[in-house]
Amino acid sequence: MQIVEENVQQNRDSIIIRTSIIGIITNICLVIFKMFVGFISNSIAIILDAVNNLSDAMSSIITIIGTKLANRKPDKKHPLGHGRVEYLTAMIVAGLILYAGITSLVESIKKIINPEEANYTFRGLLIIAVAVIVKILLGTYVKKQGEKVNSGALTASGADAMFDAILSFSVLVSALIFVKFKISLEAYVGLLIAIFIIKSGIEMLRETLSEILGQRADKALTMRIKEIIRSVDKVRGAYDLFVYNYGPDKNYASVHIEVPDDMRMDEFDLLTREIERKVHHETGVILTGIGAYSYNTKENDASKIRDRVHKIVFEHDFPLQLHGFYIDTKEKKIRFDVVMSFESDSSEGIKILKRDLKKEFPDYDFLIVADVDVSD
After folding, report:
1. 0.70 exceeded by the pTM?
2. CA distances (Å), 338 to each of 136, 266, 297, 307, in order?
């Protein structure tokens, strides 16, 4: 299994690196041609468009470095690997994009204050037109490859390339307007380019920070994991699923399962091993821990009491889910977990539930645990 995982990872890395190299070569060629046209024609818009392509090339170089670093084997200090390095390199790429955007903004404002007349040639306009087509093709290819291997950096680069094509097209249009009507719009187009670059950098930075902070797991993934677990014999439910991300496609998880109260420990051991194997085989997620909730199999009145407790709990709007219910009629104890909405005060909610349940079942003590809504 480990050999298969390593082969999949190596294939993913080779796709990212190959795609990034294609992006670097393409963008450097565009930088050379656009810089030449920009200086010859004295066009700030074309020069800033070239600067934008240069930042794209640098982003691709950093993506390659990040991929290589992220693929290092786990060590004593980092037992779960170095996958999160990709998020850090994505932050650096976002910083470069922001820097390029701010620099472009300053230069555009200077040209608006002190305008200089451009001098476009047919050859220069033809190069810009070809650059638009090249960027569209590059953007489509890079974004497709990024989605294929779940690389946020590649997907962002592909989307950025499509924006670049639109901006390059606007540069071409402004140049044609100047040639035809002698109306100079290039400084304003340069300003527009700068705004787009800054916007792209901020969005990429926000998304990367969200990944590093730890965002909600993909709903389709969590639903699939729970579906697999519930399909295993003797498991009645799967709850408290936490997915921990350590880089693209490197997910670990923990979960609680609901099993009969008469299940032996050796049976539970075999059950958890089967669940771990099935979840990893079908989703690639590694289950690092499986806890247990027991449900009543001997108490005849348990289901009736559970239904009544369920009704009382959901008379309020802050509980989202109730699970792990168990009643001990001898000890007069009832325990269960409640998933609370983020808008509610969990400690205050527990007090309210205990108060209302105590009115209905005065002889019972209640152990209610507030869970966080992380996967549903």
Report:
1. no
2. 50, 29, 21, 15
Tokens of 5: 């995982």
Residues 324-365: pLDDT tens digits?
A: 899 988 889 999 999 988 888 889 999 999 999 999 999 999
Label residues 133-144 b or e (16+ Cβ within 10 Å = b): ebbbebbebbbe
Quick: pLDDT tens for 77-96.
887 778 778 788 778 878 87
Which of 10, 122, 142 lies closest to 73 in space, CA to CA?
10
- The closest of 267, 173, 304, 280 to 224, measured between CA atoms, is 280
Beta-bridge partner residues of 258: 237, 293
Query: How far is it, in rounded angstroms, from Cα 125 to Cα 34?
Result: 10
Q: Please enumerate in sequence order all residues whose Cβ is within 8 A of that of 374, keeping only pairs 6 or more positions apart, or say none.
A: 216, 217, 241, 242
Q: How far is the C-alpha of 55 from the C-alpha of 259, rounded, in Å?
A: 55
Of how many residues is the chain composed? 376
319-328 and 286-295 as β-strands: parallel, antiparallel, unpaired? Answer: unpaired
